[in-house]
Design goal:
With about 500 residues, the chain is an alpha+beta fold. About 35% of the residues lie in helices and about 15% in strands. An 8-stranded mixed beta sheet has the order 6-8-7-14-15-13-9-12, sandwiched between helices. Strands 1-3-2 form a 3-stranded mixed beta sheet, with helices on both faces. The protein is globular.
């Protein structure tokens, strides 16, 4: 097959640039789809990040549902196999139990993506039901980090992160219930924005307010691709449980201007969870870089009860996931999860959470409230808080203490293992505030380390504006201009 462009040319373009070339008549959406499919064929054997490609979407993007008049003009886009559904397509959620599960309809956000001109060409890997830190069950698949395949991509947006980092596609769908956009962005060298509550629709499958800890979004390699995605896909469906808000101007316009002088707080220890010395040194280096851009940088953090916040977040996850599993069991007339089809920790989460009382949920929500107020008060004095994405280096493939195939009999201890590494991401979900991972650092193993910037609720645009300022300052050379060992440009 003759491709429309060289691999160097393909990976130099972001999604906005490719869409512009289609609109200018230089390329077609079908040619972009063919190039993406060839890139996936080139990198995925080493990474195992793609579950399925859709032949009809590759052959005829418009007929498969992409609105070629939309801003992305038929840009190839991979969907995480979790969250928004696609009419007639399989959605198996990383689980043997869900094999053959086919969606009857598009969700509201899926329809928005199609109208934005995104060509939904396939599904990417995720841990079972999105639980845990990486897509790693040998009975399903093992997704690997393109920088070094001995290491995990983390998760839960594992396959999307790997494909974006490896140059297969410029942008892909991701979800974030406690860091699942930002963590894999951070360890794979991508940009990952968790938007504020009230940006992307969760209709029609979720409505409970605590269900809104899970946020939709994308992985990308440029700030403007993320900005364009949010601009094109935001907004609530009729009857959403909470109000959905709009920005004063499109983020694609806001990011063209540098922000004013910002007050930026550094933080690397939340309660008992502390980053390693190497990771702290990288955070401080980035802080000095931001001082060089004219911002005020100092150490500070919200004054909250971190132990209580993590305990409440754990209660939320256990009870929410238990109900997700319970609903699946009910649909099949089952009384308990089949051990041969559902992973051990997910069964223990179901056992621990299925009888959660209203009183326990009310106590959890009270902590959500006080924690959110604490962060809100903090952001009255500070514009941005900067943390590492992870407290510890990226785990190697096979580190079972973080996986739902773990034999750990204690669910709370298992969650404690997660928080020791992924301490800095979940509270943004609890509070509904925006946070972005920017590929600015390296961990002890020489792998990418995302630096997280957080802001007050609805200040998503400020995070993108700061990201764009940094991107201009480094001349677009995220990850110091390096590319992964497994990459579309490499044989």
């Amino acid at each position: 097959m003759t491709l429309a462009m060289s691999w160097d040319e393909w990976t130099r373009h972001d999604g906005v640039a490719l869409a512009k070339r289609v609109k200018n008549g230089e390329l077609t959406a079908t040619e972009l789809a063919a190039q993406a499919a060839a890139a996936i064929a080139k990198v995925d054997p080493a990474l195992s990040g793609v579950v399925e490609l859709f032949d009809d979407a590759l052959a005829d993007p418009a007929k498969a549902g992409a609105d070629l008049a939309g801003p992305f003009a038929g840009l190839p886009f991979l969907m995480k196999d979790l969250g928004p559904t696609m009419a007639g397509r399989l959605q198996e959620m990383g689980s043997l139990f869900m094999r053959g599960n086919r969606a009857g309809a598009d969700t509201f956000l899926t329809a928005k993506m199609r109208r934005a001109g995104l060509n939904l060409i396939g599904r990417t890997t995720t841990p079972e039901f999105g639980v845990c830190s990486s897509a790693e069950n040998p009975s399903v698949y093992v997704t690997r980090n393109p920088w070094n395949t001995d290491y995990t991509t983390c998760g839960s947006s594992a396959g999307s992160a790997a494909m974006v980092a490896a140059g297969a596609v410029p942008i892909a769908h991701a979800t974030d219930g406690g860091g699942s956009i930002r963590i894999p962005a951070g360890v794979n060298g991508n940009i990952g924005l968790k938007v504020s509550r009230g940006v992307f629709s969760i209709a029609p499958h979720l409505s409970d307010l605590t269900g809104l800890v899970s946020i939709q979004g994308c992985q990308s390699r440029t700030v403007r691709d993320t900005a364009a995605f949010v601009d094109a896909c935001r907004g609530g469906a009729p009857g959403e449980f909470m109000p959905y808000w709009s920005a004063a101007e499109p983020y694609a316009e806001q990011i063209k201007r540098d922000p004013g002088r910002l007050k930026i707080a550094l933080s690397h220890q939340w309660g008992e969870y502390r980053a390693t010395p190497q990771i702290i040194s990288e955070l401080e280096r980035v802080g000095r870089f931001l001082e060089g851009l004219g911002h005020e940088v100092a150490y500070a953090q919200p004054q909250i009860d971190y132990a209580a916040a993590f305990a409440a977040q754990t209660t939320c996850y256990i009870s929410n996931f238990a109900m997700v599993i319970n609903n699946m069991l009910s649909q099949r007339g089952l009384q308990r999860p089949p051990a041969e089809l559902i992973e051990p920790i997910n069964i223990r989460i179901w056992e621990a959470g299925k009888d959660t009382s209203f009183a326990e949920r009310a106590a959890m929500q009270a902590v959500f409230n006080t924690t959110s107020r604490g962060f809100g008060a903090f952001f009255e004095d500070w514009d941005i808080m900067l943390t590492p994405i992870t407290a510890l280096p990226t785990p190697k493939v096979g580190t079972t203490e973080y996986l739902t195939i773990s034999d750990n009999p204690d669910v709370l201890d298992w969650f404690g293992n997660l928080w020791r590494n992924f301490a800095f991401t979940p509270l943004a979900n609890l509070c509904g505030i925006p946070a972005i991972s920017l590929p600015l650092a390296k961990n002890e193993h020489g792998l990418p380390l995302g630096i997280q910037a957080m802001a007050k609720q609805a200040n998503d645009g400020l995070l993108l504006q700061l990201g764009a300022q940094i991107e201009r300052a480094i001349e677009g050379r995220w990850n110091s201009g390096e590319t992964p060992a497994v990459h579309a440009t490499k044989s």
